[in-house]
Amino acid sequence: MKKNVLISGGSGFIGKYLTHLLVEKGFSVAVLSRSKRENTENISYYQWDVNKQYIDENSVINADYIVHLAGEGIADKPWTNKRKKVIVESREKSIELIYEALKKNDKKPEAFISASGIGIYGAVNGPLICNENTPSAKDFLGTTCQKWEAAADKIASLDIRTVKIRTGLVLGKDEGFLKKLVPIFKLKLGSALGSGKQYMPWIHIDDLCSIYFEAITNSKLVGPFNAAVFDNTTNTSFSKTLAKTYGYTLWLPNVPAFLLKLVLGEMSKIILTGRRVSSAQIEKLGFEFRFKNLKDALKDCLLE
């Protein structure tokens, strides 16, 4: 009988790729959805509403594994105080809803795998190489990720193996943050941002989904893991490589930091800062990145 993986946020960028991989690997997939949807041969849909604190409890009762990807997008809207609250609560309350359903039904799936972010190390520039033992930062990104992971730790308190995937910038075909950059770089109008020295830890969507698959199937994975290639890519080197993918050399000056701060406000920290992040812990357990070269990763995502 097929093992069943329940995914929250299954209709998003990462969720769709992960669903495809799991089905390909012989799993059945269940997706938590806010709207009613028809089941398919390999995918079942269950309704939930985080704001109303409603979940179809059959979703967790039937789950052998749970992958939690749901949460409001960090970079979707300006960081007003109201928006910040929504970002944090969407992560805490959604896990709380799953936690209560598990506890009520005395259900113990084989693993609970939650998304997290390298933002836990803070919106800071500098030479420090962050590993999973690096303390979380006290700024908005650091606090958000810390609360996100603390919510996941409640699942661990039920004696369920819990894994937290601290994700870098995800490269994918027509998806993720590349979606906003591609139209500009295609017109040969790309440029670096701010100083250009800020680090940009990245990961190809195929490798990220493979890490989730490893977290599902490998019982040795417990706790936090960085999911980003450690290659010291900066915004300047990333921008140059992206431009070369489209056959040209950067010619425009860097977009000034003050202009980005004026347009984006506090949210500009996402693109003006970046930590160096080590991937040693996941690799020590035998995981091998398929894409460790940025040029190859971008070509795979962007060129037909």
Describe the structure.
By secondary structure, this protein is an alpha/beta fold. It has a domain at 4-171 and 202-230: NAD(P)-binding Rossmann-like Domain (Rossmann fold), CATH 3.40.50. The protein is 38% helix and 18% strand. It contains eleven helices and 13 strands. An eight-stranded mixed β-sheet has the order 4-3-2-1-5-6-8-12, sandwiched between helices. A hairpin with a 2-residue loop joins strand 9 and strand 10 (175-176). Helix 7 (235-245) crosses helix 11. 40% of the residues are buried. The model has no long low-confidence stretch (mean pLDDT 95).
Instruction: Identify the strand order in the major beta sheet.
Output: 4-3-2-1-5-6-8-12
SSE class: alpha/beta
- Give the termini separation: 38 Å
**Low-pLDDT ranges:** none
The fraction of residues assigned to DSSP E strands is: 15-25%
Largest sheet entry: 8 strands, mixed
Mean pLDDT: 95
Order of helices and strands: EHEEEHEHEEHEEEHEHEHHHEHH
CATH class of the domain at 4-171 and 202-230: Alpha Beta
CATH homologous superfamily designation of the domain at 4-171 and 202-230: NAD(P)-binding Rossmann-like Domain
Tally of helical runs: 11
Number of strands: 13
Level-2 CATH architecture of the domain at 4-171 and 202-230: 3-Layer(aba) Sandwich
Question: What would the principal axes of the Cα set say about the shape?
Answer: globular
